[in-house]
Amino acid sequence: MKQGIWLLPTRRRIEKLRQFIEACGRTGMTTPLLILVNENELIEMWDEYSSLPLPACWALCPTKAEGLGDKVREQWPAVRNLDWCGLIVDDVIPHTYLWDRLMIEQVNGKNVVSCDDGKLAPARMAGCVIWGGELMRSVGYMFPPGFWHTYVDNVWEDLGNITGCWDIRMDVLITHDHGFEHVDGRDETFQRSYEKNSEDELAYAEWRMLEFMPAIKRISEMQGFEFKLPKSKRSFFDKVKSLIYNPRVAEPTQGVRP
Q: What value does the mean pLDDT take over residues 225-251?
């Protein structure tokens, strides 16, 4: 049986967590999940967090980190050798029965899987994201170094579009109650999440220049292909260059969108 876990970074959103827990109950979720909470916040809000009706296979996990990216990277040593690892956020609502099992079934070890969010998919990574163990070990991360919150979905879309490692389950619906959609969702956590958007944009640009090609090479080797440039005029390299030097201008999304 595949061994893995879901990571759910959160920050001061008790009611949204309650809604998520209720939705997971309605949709029959049975797989393990860690709620990543900054350790100082967890102490401060212990009464609220301890009152959450967590399923038996879920747990609160204190972190040193505060931001989404830092929290995910902090867990890397614990999850890197698993068969799969999923990322989901606190303001989504699962609608599909046994959605977690359906997502895991799609994981073959060498792919990353996203789902339908009713809006952006299948053009964008949305809903939730789950990585196969071989893929995340080959690349060396889920959340690249230097990213605070945004543009990581762009990273994996770029890698997936070039190498074919990205699969989408459009039969799994997980909607996102995002602050970009309505003013009521722009709470203090939303503001905190996007305050470093310009830094994330620079991190993404740097990743494209320095890490994109090496990451493609690592994925290709994992897939069993020799990484070399073809001779055709419309070559693989031309496609990669077009992505590097003509990056898509996309509205930043929440982390890997998740």
A: 53
